Model the fold of this input.
Amino acid sequence: MNMTGHVCAIGVSFAFNDGPEDRKGKGVAMGSAVLSMLLTPVFMLYLRRQNAKKLRVKGSPEASALRAKSVEEIYDAHPDFLYTL
Done:
């Protein structure tokens, strides 16, 4: 997420190249801000669904087998790993 934000910030900075009013740059900056405001609730909904899915299968045999591995080995596939919203 951070990398995407930084790449977009660099791209927007290159759009400010049309004189003192910078209409193109301001439009690109406003468009990227609106896009991020629209995508944030979608991403939060996705993460809530992922958390709910993990909580539903928390006691399953598959989750017990995955629990033997560390978070560093399987990252967010670990059954005890939940996303913070």
